[in-house]
Amino acid sequence: MADLYSKLGVKRGADEAEIKKAYRKLAKELHPDRNKDNPKATERFADVTAAYDLLSDRDKRAQYDRGEIDEQGNPRGPFGFGGRGGGGGFNPGAGPGGANYEFTGDGADFGDIFEGIFGRSRGAGAGAGARRPGGFGGFGSQGGGRPPKGPDIAYRLAVPFEDAAALKPQRITLANGKTIDVKLPNGVESGTQMRLTGQGEAGPGGNGDAIITVDIRPHRYFRRDEDDVRLDLPVAIDEALLGAKVKVPTVDGAVMLGIPKGSSSGKTLRLKGKGFYRKDGSRGDQLVTVMIDIPAEDAELEAFVENWSAKGKRNPRANLGV
Prior knowledge:
322 residues, alpha+beta, Helix Hairpins, HSP40/DNAj peptide-binding domain, four-stranded mixed β-sheet, 8 helices, 14 strands, elongated
């Protein structure tokens, strides 16, 4: 099995920022919405998400580096088998955090990302529920013969961009009809998984869990840059030339921003604490890039510029040697 670091394309000593950057790049390339006709990309998306899920957890990463757990997060027991509960049997379908792959005649089914990670889809809205593999001569039991819990159920939660940045609670309806509000964690991003204990299917040893995978929706004018939010802000010529106070949208609502006198297109202004929450609870910023809006076919403006140009204007490209 491939090393988790190699799955993300980073070195074993990579820091958290390198791992996060590598994951975001791969997740963007391999996301199922972009690769609907490419099951191999979906399979890789599941693999890199599982790798990031483990390596982004400091404690689990340390255990993995010491060889105490395997690539699925299972303890390494005698003979290389991953035990559960101190003396449990080998569970060939176990995934990170207790999720299980469902095996068909040809192996794991990755036709959909959530089928690939958690099992067969239960239909629109309910996400995909994990199935525990049966048979294997008694393998797959937990805790040395204890009855197994019921299967986990996986859900895909589409979160609006602003809600993700501000960590607004999200309402979700479970397969059992129960509607609950879930709190988004610090550092949330597309691919983040949340576990609701006991909200899965019933089984002899109790209920399984609900596994919620977050999918942050794109925004029509905000863009995410690590933990910052970027915005291109159109401003009028007079606002840029003379300076002005203008209203600017943020993920927390509109605020007033001062445009410095003589601002050019490309000038970037910073709004502190208007970005995404980091894992440590601090928050990124909003970076506002000035974009001067020039009206089309404005006769008065054209006449002014022609008159101004005739008087001799400076060459803005002089520093480029042209």
